[in-house]
Specification:
The complex is a heterodimer of chains A (515) and B (242).
Chain A (H helix, E strand, L loop, with lengths): L3 H5 L6 E5 L3 H9 L9 E7 L2 E7 L1 H5 L8 H7 L4 E4 L2 H15 L6 E3 L6 E5 L8 H15 L6 E5 L2 H9 L6 E3 L5 H6 L10 H9 L5 H5 L3 H8 L1 H10 L17 E10 L5 H18 L2 E12 L4 E6 L8 H14 L6 E13 L14 H15 L4 E6 L9 E5 L23 E9 L2 E3 L5 E6 L3 E15 L8 E10 L6 E7 L4 E7 L1
Parallel strand pairs in A: 2-4, 7-8
Antiparallel strand pairs in A: 1-6, 1-7, 2-3, 5-6, 9-12, 10-11, 10-12, 13-14, 15-21, 16-17, 17-18, 18-19, 19-20, 20-21
Chain B lengths: L2 H14 L13 H7 L9 E6 L5 H14 L4 E5 L18 E4 L7 H10 L5 E5 L6 H14 L2 E6 L11 E7 L15 E11 L4 E9 L29
Parallel strand pairs in B: 1-5, 1-6, 2-3, 2-4, 4-5
Antiparallel strand pairs in B: 6-7, 7-8
Classes of the chains: A alpha+beta (515), B alpha/beta (242).
Chain lengths: 515, 242
Amino acid sequence: MASVERRVGLPTWRIGCARVPRFALAVARQAHPEVPPHAPVALIEEKGTRSRVAAADAEAQADGVQVGQAAARARAGCPGLVCLTWDPAALRQATLALAERLEQAAPLVVPLEDEPGAFWIDARGMRWLGGEDGLAARVLAEAAAAGFPELKLAVADTAVAARAAVRLPGAAAVRLVPAGGDAAFLARLPLDALDMGDEVRDALLGLGLRTVAELAALPPGALEARFGPEGRAALRRALGFDPRRPEGRPPAPLPRVALPLDEPVDHTAPLVFGLRGILDTLASRLIARGLSATRLVLGLRLDDRSERVETLEPTRPLHHPRALFELCRDRLERITVDSPVVELTVAVGAAQPAVAEQANLGAGRWDPRALEGALNRLHGRFGQAVVFTPEPRDDPRPEAGGAWQALSEVPLDLQVPEVAAPPPAPAPIRRALPEPVPLPVRLDAHGQPTVVRLAMGGWQTVRAHGPERLSGGWWDPAGRYAREDWRLVLLGDEGGVLWASRAGDGAWWLRGWWD
Amino acid sequence: MSSNHAERLAQLLRETRPAPLDLDLSSGLRGLDRVLGAGGLPAGQISEWVGGASSGKTGLLRILVGAARRRGVAVAWVDGPGALVAGDWVDLGAAAPLWVVRPPHADEAAFCAEVLLRTQSFGLVVLDGGPALPAAVGVRLQRLARQAAAALVRVRGPQEAASRPIARRIEIAPEPPPTPADPLEARAPLVWPVQVSRARGGEPEAARVHLVETCPDRLLAHAIAPDRPAGRTQAGTRYGIG
């Protein structure tokens, strides 16, 4: 029976399953080269006060050591037994290391979640790469180079057939199940070889079934009625249907670091001392994954079991520890908390691949990295853009003839022209009030202001220069304007020049002053 | 590395070392430069720029800012009061950037100046507004300015407390603008003489600088000439947009 794709006419999958028998023992032997090659070895798993045998090699098993046996009993039965520690973390690490090694030989290698040292391999498209034989040779060579020459590889249309082929006792190093031959291949196998849940397998064995062919011959409805979805899945796998495909590793969660405090602190300033350390860790994790943070989440766990969360968005993606510190420090110092802080956390809320940076070779004192840090520090302290550059605008009104453009990125270099433009003539500069304020004015016979009343200085005599008549925006009902701008020279002792305007309705407004 | 190679490398470094930079900032105006000091605004020190609200101090500082930017020296201006008008600072001929920092509160101005000085990327930092600098902050800013070889200018009003330490104090006082021959001449440039004097940091010096505000050449020359139909004085009807 053919795979699903073959039956509906789609291109078929070819899935490889690579497996290192007794992987845990092989890893332990690699970690302990001092153990003699033929010495019986068992891995001991510590669970509380109990020690059990988690794995045993062939020599140990020949001496009577069994998996699950108490460690003391195993040592008593096999005096020469070498007991090594069962280390799940080391197993995970070794599995990932071997997966990376096998990726040199195959386009996609995915570790199996339920078995260390076993991998799915995408075996499609090998026609121009030496075929599946070539793939097998490359995989075995890489495994041998990594210290696992005993690795076995099987390639089939379905995951269940490939895995069954490598789990068979005494399986060859390479087993290539021909395309379309999965069902026939599986039918010959014992039921133990089929990938299914232990409960279903035990029940089927208890019913007297011994081979996959016997399972495939059962009526589907009865099997589903007895074992539910697991029974249906087992039957479909026995028939050569298996929807599982090698899929890329799920993306690892974004880095997060925490600083638990021995003693709660009442304010956040002392946390700055610990902040630098955890941000160094966070930066190293970002750099190791080739990421830059575009959003950081600063969390404070409080003594009253509440949590205070602040989100920081840098002006540009960051991964340098100093830049991260500059961004977080001021925000942290300004947070006020109602309850003592027991833990500080910094998590990367969003990230993007880090881009290469151009070295700053000739810009003199211009230091983009330091400026980026300053930009982030100011942004972090105030929570808003506070650094601007003036940009020209095409508008005759003085207050609209330019705009403050928030600075979001630091130029990497300064481009200094060889010939600078001539400087403008010295001139007084406007300073604007936040909003225009009404200005009481007395006019002469020509309609020119002669006396104005200032909030701080009372009535003052002025000499008017103007007007500069401004109008525009007639095409926009909300944006039209028409007014006169005047320069009012204060004739008092302190002097000065005011910037006033007369609106279309005759009202006078003080907009600012020249300085 | 052998000693011969090390000596050769040291010699190459000596030969390729650039000439010392002229760090003091010249305004390009002889009188103003004389008051500021030998070569202009001294780098690595704090200078105080003291003047009333409408004394012309910002206009004079803008001359220095423009001169620095034309030399390729980046400038930062901490606008504590938030009163600068962007259009007046668009300088298309400038080579180096001008960063204007506008903190939400003027009290934060000194902090912003400190952050900018720490980058050692600016040759001129203007600290405009904010309360008087406490002595500790002043000393710290002085140290940072020296490390960055930057001129730090603190702008304050004559009534506000002086800062310490201050290497130089420049006082600006306006003189009454001369009365134009025809008081109704709208396009007459507003010529504004400003008295600049050095009150601290060497021998007293004084100079007069003329600032000139020209009215844009848009409409009729005369203030009361009828450039619009008589009687149309309702809001929004004056200039043909009613």
